[in-house]
């Protein structure tokens, strides 16, 4: 990192997350917001939330709330925005239409933009002819050289028009990306892009540049899909004579296979296997915001190539633009599960119990925080997502459990042999004043030896009867929480099932 860049990054940054509210918030948007947030908090600057809602055809009213809910769930609170206000508002582009028109007309006045009156039909025919000649489709410049006076008369007469940027046709432009370095574009290969549509709404190319300048944005984080129009945006900045922000074009997310960029179809297929790229779904699937943050930050950034576990506070301290990389990253849901499990185990017992409570209640269990607290220590080490809690530990809160009869029959034993083992187990447990790990496990292991069984065979019968599950948290710790009377009642019920099966098999 150069001294100049180091000094600039250490000054209070003004950064913005500026999504288009057209759909659910996905992990790519969340990562962009995260990098902005980290730089703002690290430098004591401001993190701005701005809605780029000029694409009214794709505008989704529910998407705006989802964006805010998703960022807040992740812990990425902004300093200025449409719901908070601030010195640079409004923070919604559809409310800034007059501002963009003013700046578009400034570009026209300085010869950097022009009114274009070409109809859709004319432009379509133009593209078809270019394609026939095997040329790259682009605007042919029909209105580019109209005099300003002539064009203004047509505008004043009400003729439909757009405003285009007048791209230089000679020379090249060299622009700098903080990840990729200098990039050179030949101006002759660039198009006269539309800046303002015929309905008067500005396109991203103008609106975002004007907003970033007026809001004092120091760093622009966005996806590498914006690189093809990167020279246009820099040309606009230079046409106004503005100081450019630092441009940071982030790597893309690839499909889990590593082949190709993620698509809507891919995300729909993922849902079938309880995977999703959308933040709302991640929450519902039982992921922690801490796990999401840890996962996405490392898809494009690395601290030292070895450290993997980060809290948000860690990242505020350690984040650096110069450690971002250009390589695209394949989405690895196994890594996601890994990080989420690490963060689950990093939570205090009380915090984890509090987060588990709504998942138990959604699963139909009428439980309180106090009910869940004793269970958390024995399930925490085995959990990957919060929604596993009710599946793993629901048996603690059921009046009755109903094991599969096959699970009550130990491996390599008959129903009758399993019944005999269960009856002996009941005798021993009934002889205990209380059931605890220390009191119950030693005689159970001794019984297994006495019967010539493996401990796993005997414990499997007991586990199925007491929990109703083939797999459970540690058996004896679970029995202690369930309590002596209920353990004995459930074991008796299991014995009854084995008696019926044994009798049936003897017929």
**Poorly predicted ranges:** none
Shape estimate: elongated
CATH fold field value of the largest domain: Rossmann fold
The radius of gyration is 32 Å
**How much of the sequence is in beta strands?**
5-15%
Number of strands: 11
What is the CATH C level class of the largest domain, in words? Alpha Beta
Please state the second-level CATH architecture of the largest domain: 3-Layer(aba) Sandwich
Main sheet properties? 3 strands, antiparallel
What's the CATH superfamily of the largest domain, by name?
A: HUPs
Summarize model confidence as the mean pLDDT.
93
Oligomer state of the chains in this structure: single chain
Rounded to the nearest angstrom, the distance between the terminal CA atoms is 83 Å
Structural class: mainly alpha
Strand order of the largest sheet: 3-4-7
Tell me the count of domains.
Answer: 4
Number of helices: 23
Question: Mind explaining what this structure looks like?
Answer:
It is a single chain. The protein is mostly helical. The chain has four domains: 96-250, 3-Layer(aba) Sandwich (Rossmann fold); 264-346, Glutamyl-tRNA Synthetase, domain 2 (Orthogonal Bundle), CATH 1.10.1160.10; 349-397, Helicase, Ruva Protein, domain 3 (Orthogonal Bundle); 405-506, Arc Repressor Mutant, subunit A (Orthogonal Bundle). It contains 23 helices and eleven strands. The chain has helices at 3-10, 27-43, 61-74, 97-109, 120-132, 148-156, 204-214, 230-240, 264-271, 279-284, 289-297, 312-318, 333-346, 349-362, 369-372, 376-379, 388-393, 405-408, 415-430, 437-451, 455-467, 475-482, 484-506; strands at residues 14-17, 46-49, 113-116, 162-165, 172-177, 181-186, 194-196, 219-223, 246-250, 253-254, 329-330. The strands form five sheets. Strands 3-4-7 form a three-stranded antiparallel β-sheet. Strand 5 (172-177) and strand 6 (181-186) form a beta hairpin. The model has no long low-confidence stretch (mean pLDDT 93).
